[in-house]
Amino acid sequence: MLNSARLLVLLEIARTGTIVAAAQALHLSPSAVSHQLARLEQELAVALVERQPQSLRLTAAGERLAEHAQAVADLMAVARDDLLAHSEGGAGVLRLGFFASSGLELLPRALSVFAAERPKVEVELILGQPHELVPDLEAGRLDAAVVFEHPLDPWCRQAAVDVEMFFDEPQLVVLPLRHRLGRRTAVRLAALEGESWIGTHGGHTGEPVLERACAAEGFRPRVRCRSDHYQVTINLARAGMGIALVPALGLGDATGVHVCRLDHPRLHRRIGVATRPTNRNPLLRIFLAELRSAAEEIRSLLEVQWS
């Protein structure tokens, strides 16, 4: 196999025309350059230079090999620059998982600055629930996952995953405009006994948190319909089909309905990010800084709006 260092010696001889000049350019001794050239000719069993009194001239075989040596040098430079860009976070691939309502405001805020400053970075986005994303994170198919956790429905955290929580997201009650509680700013769950609900499907346990919370209050909610698309639940509430429980990040178009905060100590979501502690992707550290900044902005907005 050809030695790349010897090819670079030949390339420098082709550029400078002498052993001494090539040695100076390569920061080697002239004897070292002569030795590398001789070894290269021995390996190939072909003369690569014609030795003249004051200089060297490449043979036809030497000229062909010098062309290949230039291609090798160019490829090595590209590889060096590419790895440098990766190590500095200027290029590479970042694979992120996220749940749907984080994609409305939180994730776009974090990615807008990140992507604008790193146009050569490829960002892959995977939508899913936390219990679906964490196995991919553990297996190395994701670099990070934006996640939530209900106090009433915690998902199992494996030892291989670190979770950093950013803020608690309030749950909101969406009511038709003419509802009997339509003027309140906050409502207790017990006051909603007997209502028709537009509910959601359960998480990894299969039992929705609404049913768990209502059971603790001593009643079972009457669920007319279930959808994990929060705009669907809002639209159905607007049509008078029932009331809905919607997390603050999932509140989209709320015209034509009344929205108030649910006063309950355990009906909220904790929003955060899950990562793999062994992950050495330099892009991850940069993205996490942007995500923390975006999360703090969202936390402040929610605090002002729903405290």
TrEMBL record:
Does the keyword Calcium belong to this entry? Answer: no
Annotated keywords: DNA-binding, Transcription, Transcription regulation
- GO terms for molecular function, please? DNA binding; DNA-binding transcription factor activity
Asked if the Swiss-Prot or TrEMBL record annotates the protein with the keyword DNA-binding, the reply is yes
The record ties this protein, via Pfam families, to: HTH_1, LysR_substrate
Q: Which residues cross the membrane?
A: none
> Residue ranges of the HTH lysR-type domain?
2-59
A cellular component term, taken from the record's GO annotations: protein-DNA complex
Protein family = Belongs to the LysR transcriptional regulatory family.
The protein's name is LysR family transcriptional regulator
> Which organism's genome codes for this protein?
Streptomyces atratus
Classification from the root reads:
Bacteria, Bacillati, Actinomycetota, Actinomycetes, Kitasatosporales
